[in-house]
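Recap from last week: sequence in, structure out.
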Amino acid sequence: MHELKAIAIAAMASMSLLASPAAAAGDDASKPIAVPAPAPATAPPSPGSSSAWSAEVAPNKGDGLTLTDQQAQLVHKVSDYFSGIDTLQGNFVQTGADNKRMRGKFYVMRPGRFRFDYARPSRQVVVSDGRYLAIQDHDLNNEDRVSLDDTPFRLLLRKDVDLVRDAKIMEVQESSDMLVVGLIDKNPDTPGQIKLFLSTKPALELKEWVTKDAQGLDTRVQVSDLTKSGEIDAALFKIQSMGRPMSMP
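Predicted structure tokens:
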């Protein structure tokens, strides 16, 4: 479980996320410019961990950038993108600091709900019902549960997304086809560092995010084949008690 706890948290939604075949996102999932490879782990993470989800992430440091008008406009564009999502689903590839890859399918229903189903042989599920985020390993019959407000994803999945208002912006980069925004929560009680990568052509679209754990190790989640505003069964976001059969979409 520590490996899952060690991809924001990460909750994307999240961050097959399905226990279906991992035709999901391939190894050639699009990689944004200027993204450093994950730093090698000093010690291999324990099975089942991923810094993307738990609140066990690097402490909030720094006061953030004093945004120029242009930078503020770019951050508002990112806020508007997330505010405009009612539902979102697609495939993901998660890469830990040890370069281990896991993949699957994910589902998001704003505000606050998401589900990541990891493709077999994993039987791990990360699900948020809007209040709590549960990290479940159905092989080990083990669960960790935290408040969604204790993860960086609360900023992106709340009803009214305003990153300029609610986050310290640590980085803003723009190229001809990519927008990168790094942020931490302004709330000192909510740990978490997350960096978002969005393509800008032909339209703004989330491509990946990177979260950093307390040891400074990165977990990257790349997403592909995104569908916005499709129908998603709300029952997917119910946190089932461990020991019961998983309901698969």
